[in-house]
Amino acid sequence: MNRTFASAAAVILLPAGIAATLAAAPASAEPPSAPSAPAGKAASPAMLDAMQRDLGLTAAQARARIARDDSAGLTELKLRKSLGSAFAGAWLTADATSFVVAVTDPAKAAEVRAAGATPKVVARSAGKLDAVKDRLDKAAGKAPDTVPGWYVDTKTNTVVVLARGGNAAAKSFVKASGVDASAVRVVASTEKPRVLYDVRGGDAYYIGGARCSIGFAVNGGFVSAGHCGNAGNSTSGYNQVSQGTFQASSFPGNDYSWVAVNSNWTPQPWVNNYAGGNVTVAGSTVAAIGSSICRSGSTTGWHCGTVQAYNQTVNYSQGSVSGLTRTNVCAEPGDSGGSWLSGQQAQGVTSGGSGNCTSGGTTYFQPVNEILSAYGRTLVTSGGGGGGGTPPPTGCSGYEYSVSGSLSSGSSAVQPNGSYYYSSSSGTHRGCLDGPSGADFDLYLQKWSGSSWVTVAQGITTSADESVSYSGTYGYYRWVVNAYRGSGSYALGYSNP
């Protein structure tokens, strides 16, 4: 493709279709002031659906709840500052019809009412409660296993210490910490907190003293190389935390396996690009011979080359393996089992090769679709679907907002709805484009510089599907979808801070 671009700090030179779209927008006029909460947020179908499902609300009630939540947040910010040391916390009531602000000074109650909130006079300020919690934090190393945690409970004007299996150990911990016991409530709990980790292609995993790389996340776990382990072998993750167990493995003859992970690990549609980010997996359409292809592995990271041949038989010292794909990409021990991608399409898992990433070499991979078929697994993709490379018809899922449209080849569209959105805080902007089969659609994220729209991130592979992730500061943003080649309908899912 002949896509010309400059650095993110400059105005990007875009294809003709995008240039025409940008010309229609004023280059020097700043967008009008955004509302305190983007209007699209209240109308987000994904958010409204989730609120109706989990909070038992109707669509109208969900919209009203969002408006009240936003108002409460703004009121709290204002009163926290104006009340100073008298501020003791704030909360919405269970039905969200009343916003309560606690104060230690009765004379401040009128100020709270004037702001539209309900005052409650309490004994301890937010500062004092935070100080109690800080003291407990400093003693955290001495907390018994039966204490899963503690937090400031503004509603009761205390610090809650959770206790599992009786209160005695928790009370002893509180006493030993030296805090004012009258400010603490010990509350019975059944919580057993655990850290949750992501299953991501290209990351290391360990089998005893050996190390391999994850291929792709599938339902229930991940696929990898067969020579990495046998059925029944236990694995630990990149962080040496218990991860899972090999369910099946085939080597030689084939070189594939699948590992079921425990509840500490969540399969994700990502591959580690070893540059501080992820490549999103959209499907598993087989790349043609001569196509560009990239590999992720825990020894040498991210390397690229081209597909040279299908269905190669490779004679290893342990026996021959047939049906492998040959590439001119380098790899080294420990990269075994790692991910191969062409664009966003999963291709396979690393089997073996010759040479290294200093002098170059040849590397072979086991095609992923054969693995999925052999074990009845489905690939975890950006659309939540399985393998086969066919994007889900409803577009990208798991994003806060969703928009759609249709483009003819060479044209472009600004989203959302020909406009922009305002992000009031720093954080990650994520976009997922699901384009028409056989087309080449691109996705650009642009930010208003004060005088023009500047492209800060882009997805410009040869695929119809693209994903973009960008960590940015507050400001005005918009998405641009470009039909580089081909025509048809598209769906765009995006989330912002």
Report what the structure shows:
With 497 residues, the chain is an alpha+beta fold. It folds into three domains: 16-27 and 398-495, Jelly Rolls (Sandwich), CATH 2.60.120; 126-188, GMP Synthetase, Chain A, domain 3; 197-393, Beta Barrel (Thrombin, subunit H). The protein contains eight helices and 31 strands. It has a six-stranded antiparallel barrel. A five-stranded antiparallel sheet has the order 10-11-14-13-12, with helices on one face. Strand 12 (234-236) and strand 13 form a beta hairpin. The longest helix is centred in the first third of the chain and has 25 residues, at 59-83. Residues 1-43 and 384-394 have low confidence and may be disordered. This is Peptidase S1A alpha-lytic prodomain domain-containing protein.
Layout: helices, strands, pairs:
Blueprint: H1 16-23, H2 39-42, H3 45-55, H4 59-83, E1 87-92, E2 99-103, H5 109-114, E3 118-121, H6 126-138, E4 150-153, E5 158-163, H7 168-177, E6 184-188, E7 197-201, E8 204-207, E9 210-213, E10 216-218, E11 221-224, E12 234-236, E13 242-250, E14 256-261, E15 265-272, E16 278-280, E17 292-297, E18 301-316, E19 319-327, E20 339-342, E21 345-356, E22 360-367, H8 368-375, E23 401-407, E24 412-415, E25 421-423, E26 427-434, E27 440-448, E28 453-459, E29 466-472, E30 475-485, E31 488-495
Parallel strand pairs: 2-3, 5-6, 7-15
Antiparallel strand pairs: 1-2, 4-5, 8-9, 10-11, 11-14, 12-13, 13-14, 15-16, 17-18, 17-20, 18-19, 19-22, 20-21, 21-22, 23-31, 24-30, 25-30, 26-29, 26-31, 27-28, 27-30
